[in-house]
Amino acid sequence: MLSERRLEVLRAIVQDYVGTEEPVGSKALTERHKLGVSPATVRNDMAVLEDEGFIAQPHTSAGRIPTDKGYRLFVDKLAGVKPLSSPERRAIQNFLDGAVDLDDVVGRTVRLLAQLTRQVAIVQYPSLTRSTVRHVELLSLAPARLMLVLITDTGRVEQRMIDCPAPFGETSLADLRARLNSRVVGRRFADVPQLVQDLPESFESEDRGTVSTVLSTLLETLVEETEERLMIGGTSNLTRFGHDFPVMIRPVLEALEEQVVLLKLLGEAKDSGMTVRIGHENAHEGLNSTSVVAVGYGSGDEAVAKLGVVGPTRMDYPGTMGAVRAVARYVGQILAES
To answer: 320 near 307, Cβ under 8 Å?
Structure first.
């Protein structure tokens, strides 16, 4: 266990290195921070921190920089989540409140996160498997052709065309629409098949074929893998951090182009609470020089998707964590009100 003083030295090293981008020496630490001890004592503390693997000496520089292990201790023990200012919170709310549909919400969230954190922002679309049904609309396009519109509690809208085996009248359509909604509105997707399985039997024999076709289309819509969608923005922000990537930036960019990698990154985040993966904690080799800050968001207590940012390990963790958490909360509120 490190003493309180050595923890304070580590905190100061992380803060200075993140702020200046320069390796930190003992003289600079004692000048910039009220550590209450001599430079010689600080040098001794830094030697212990280096022996323990929390800081390292890059090349021949006299200064030290945090390692992945040092950043991990900083995030776990020393860094609080920095709250956003009132103007920042108002700006987030005003920007997101202008969204007109779910695609717009996700697009605005990506741009906002990238601007606030100056990192790469990733936002996953709400998962259908975790959603509930808000409304099912059925529209007649021709005597034997319908449109099914599924609206979820997260504001997601799915549309399907249905070719019916026989003409279906407006009265029967209105009846099916009413009965269907009475059974499925507010229910989880996983519960819907059982709730509607006996519905065709309650219709006249000539309408049962169409009712069964409509239900088949609805159930197919519920189980399609459409939740495997995400949006990414702010990749150009990485060009500001060229010196933070020891080999080259290309492996990072290649990893960010792989949707499977990004979905796995977000999938590792807890549904509630902040998840921070630092450097080599990221399983994908191309992201070993980056950190990922992610959190779940949703319209209720349960997360329906994840959002987060990717940036160099030398990042402002308290500020980034605060921005990611605040944006997730506002997105959740918008989904709840939509």
So the answer is: no
Residue with tokens 């920042």: 88
- Percent of the chain having pLDDT more than 90? 33
Sign of CA dihedral 310, 313, 316, 321: positive
Per residue, the 3-state secondary structure of 115-162, as one string, reads HHHCCEEEEECCCHHHCEEEEEEEEEEECCEEEEEEEECCCCEEEEEE
Closest to 78 measured CA to CA, from 296, 290, 321: 321
Q: How far apart are alpha carbons 325 and 83 in whole angstroms?
A: 9
The rounded distance, in Å, linking the Cα atoms of 229 and 250 is: 24
What is the model's pLDDT at position 271? 63
Q: Decide if 278 contacts 291 (C-beta within 8 A).
A: yes
Residue 202: how many CB atoms within 10 A of its CB?
12
Do the beta carbons of residue 75 and residue 18 sit within 8 Å? no
- Structure confidence at residue 301 (pLDDT): 67
Phi and psi of 251, rounded to 5°? -55, -35
